[in-house]
Design brief:
- With 409 residues, the protein is α/β, with parallel strands linked by helices.
- It has two domains: 19-297, Rossmann fold; 299-405, Up-down Bundle (Four Helix Bundle (Hemerythrin (Met), subunit A)), CATH 1.20.120.
- The protein has 13 helices and 14 strands.
- It has helices at 53-71, 87-96, 100-117, 129-145, 174-183, 224-235, 250-265, 297-302, 307-315, 327-344, 353-364, 369-385, 393-405, and strands at residues 19-23, 28-32, 37-42, 75-82, 125-128, 149-152, 155-158, 200-204, 220-222, 240-246, 271-277, 280-282, 285-286, 323-324.
- Strands 5-4-3-10-11 form a five-stranded parallel β-sheet, with helices on both faces.
- β3, α1 and β4 (75-82) form a beta-alpha-beta unit.
- α11 (353-364) runs antiparallel to α12.
Length: 409
Amino acid sequence: MHAWPASEVPALPGKGRDLRIHDTATGGRVTLAPGPVARIYVCGITPYDATHMGHAATYNAFDLVQRVWLDTKRQVHYVQNVTDVDDPLLERAMRDGIDWVGLAERETALFREDMTALRMLPPQHYIGAVEAIPGIVPLVERLRDSGAAYELEGDVYFSVDADPHFGQVSNYSTELMRHLSAERGGDPERPGKKNPLDPMLWMAAREGEPSWDGASLGAGRPGWHIECVAIALDHLGMSFDVQGGGSDLIFPHHEMGASHAQTLTGEYPMAKAYVHAGMVGLDGEKMSKSRGNLVFVSRLRRDGVDPAAIRLALLSRHYRADWEWTDQVLQDAVERLDRWRAAVSRPDGPSADALVEELREALSDDLDTPAALAAVDRWAALQTAEGGTDESAPGLVSRAVDALMGVAL
C-alpha cells in the first residue's frame, strides 16, 4: 500500500531541541533523545469514513513530533497502518450494499488526499492489515504454542496473564478496562475465556465474511491489536521511540498491543513513550463515526476552506486537550492565516531570529502549539504596527512556520 507525497520541509538555521513529551504510561513528561534515526508508529484509520477532524487532530500531533525531530537534524522512521478489514468496515459495506474492498480503497484514497492537502508528512511504511496477514499468522502461532494464547471454538485469544507488565500502559482499574473492552470491540462476557479481558488474536472464518489461510490456525482473519504489533515489530523492532494515536486507543488497543509484543519478544517496553491526542467534539459529544457527528476535512476543502486554515484551527488547541470544533474556531484560524500572510508578504520586517527559537522552545515543550501561535501572532502584530528593516525576516518566518508547523504561508 502506498502513502501520499511528502511536502518539502525547509531547513532552518541552527538546530532544534530534544522533545519533552507526556507519556501516558508514566503519567509525566519524558525527554526523548533518539539516536540518528527516531522511530514512531501511529495507528491509522479503519477506512469506512475518512477523514474527520478528530482524525486530522491526531495526525497533526504526530506530524509535529516528526517536524521537531527533523529540526534536530535526525532522520525519522515513521510507520502507519490501515485497518482495511474489521467489523465496522464490513458492517458499513453491508449497510450500504457495497463491496467492502471497494469501500476501503475509496476511503483510504480520500484519506491520502486529505493528508496531502494538510501537508502531513507521510510514513515510510504504510501497511494495510490485509497485506500484513502473512506476518501476523506466525506471531499468533508462536503465542499459542508458547501457552500465551489459547483456542476457543476455533478462535484464538491472547491471555493477558502471560504478560507481567499488562496494565502498565493505561494504569486503568480492572473495572474500567472491562467496561472499555465491551465498548471498544472486545467481548468480555463471552463464556469460556480465561480472563474476560483476553483479546482475540485470530477470528475463525464466519459465513459471509472474508477470511484468509491461517496455516495451523485455520481460515480466518486477524484481531485488531496483533495487526499493529506485527507491522511495528517488522519495521521498527522493540523499544521504538513513540507509539501514538488518539486517547481512545489507550485501552484496549495500545495496552493489548504492548502485551502482545512484550510476550512475543521477552523485551520491555514496546515503546519508550505512549503519546495520545485528545478527542475533538461537536455539539457536546466526541466526534465519532458511530454518532455520525462528523466534520470532514474533504467537505471543508470542497467548500473552499484553505487547508492551511484547517491546520491552524487544529494547532490552536493543545494536542492532549479534549476540545470542541465550532465555526468560530475555523473563522479565527482563517483570520490568523490572513494576518500572517499579510505580514510575511512585506519586503522586510522585525528580526525573526528570536521567533524561531521561541517556536522551537514551545514545540519541544510537549508540542505547545498555542504558545507557538502566540509567538507568531506577536511578530505579525509588530510587523503591522512598526515594520522593520531585516530583509530576511519575512522569509525566515515563512520557512519556520512551514518547517515546524506544516503551514504554508
